[in-house]
Specification:
Helices cover about 5% and strands about 30% of the residues. By secondary structure, it is mainly beta. It folds into three domains: about 1-90, Archaeosine Trna-guanine Transglycosylase, Chain: A, domain 4 (Roll), CATH 2.30.130.110; about 125-185, no CATH class; about 195-270, OB fold (Dihydrolipoamide Acetyltransferase, E2P) (Beta Barrel).
């Protein structure tokens, strides 16, 4: 289906961002022209990122004005920006974790009010420490895990009651940090022990690799192929890559003979016409 410029839409989270999120149902085809003149060079799935400007090799890719990765090669404006094109930022250590990676702008003092709180070493104040561990760039993932730092468990209890399927932990003493690290690791599934996939929007799915190695797609499968649960879409070494979803194959994300990592996206499906 062709779209007019007014119908091709993306969301730019901050004015300083150099990528935006394609929001059209089913994604957009290569060649689509946006109202601001940006033309897609690649087919971009719904909920995925498109480069708004030319990104030089090594430059930061910004979403919410925060680097979510660094370009492994030159990425022209209009390109689909995905993890195979990016070097991920190094993870911050829990020890010495900053209060905020992006400080809020200074505001005028609020006079005549008090509250029960504490003062941090840098002069800022707070009422309670809570660490929310979230997949910040996975499409519509939201916050899934909550770690509350400090005595009591008020916020973890609130998360259990209000966020379906959430994991929580309360860390009250330094001795609890080892338990926190174990809890964080337990929340990251690994290995080929079950069929794996990632939910995107209601009708979009990714099939991910069950192992690390060289990917080879099934020879007679391509865009538009019907997929049922358990269909073999390719192999990583000797390991079969089976789809945990039923739908229509939109495209392969991994290239033939590409070396992939465990849980790297392999193929993109659409589950409804």
């Amino acid at each position: 289906m062709s779209l007019t410029m007014a119908e091709a839409l993306y969301i730019r989270m901050r004015d300083s961002d150099n990528v935006a999120i394609v929001v059209n149902d089913g994604g957009l085809a290569a060649g689509t022209l946006f109202p601001d003149g940006l033309r897609l060079l690649d087919k971009v799935p719904q909920g995925h990122k498109v480069a708004l400007v030319d990104l030089a090799k090594g430059s930061a890719v910004l979403r919410y004005n925060v680097p979510i990765g660094y370009a492994l090669k030159d990425i022209p404006a209009g390109s689909w920006v995905h993890e195979r094109l990016l070097h991920m930022p190094d993870a911050l250590s829990l020890e010495g974790l900053p209060i905020a990676t992006v400080k809020a702008p200074a505001q005028a003092p609020l006079e005549g009010y008090t509250f029960e709180g504490f003062r941090n070493a840098d002069g800022s104040v707070g009422t309670r420490n809570i660490l929310a561990i979230t997949q910040t760039v996975q499409c519509v993932a939201g916050v899934t895990d909550f770690a509350e730092l400090g005595p009591g468990a008020v916020l973890t209890g609130m998360a259990k009651r209000t966020v379906a399927g959430s994991r929580t932990i309360s860390v009250a003493t330094p001795e609890d940090l080892d338990r926190l690290l174990e809890w964080v690791g337990a929340g990251t599934p690994s290995g080929p022990g079950r069929e794996q996939g990632e939910h995107l929007f209601a009708v979009e799915r990714l099939v991910v690799s069950p192992a690390a190695g060289i990917f080879t797609p099934v020879a007679d499968m391509g865009e538009g192929s019907a997929i049922v649960v358990g269909t073999v879409v390719g192999h990583v070494g000797e390991v079969e890559v089976r789809s945990p979803f039923a739908g229509v194959l939109q495209s392969f994300i991994a290239l033939d003979t590409e070396r992939v990592t465990n849980r790297q996206p392999i193929a993109w499906l659409r589950t409804e016409p």
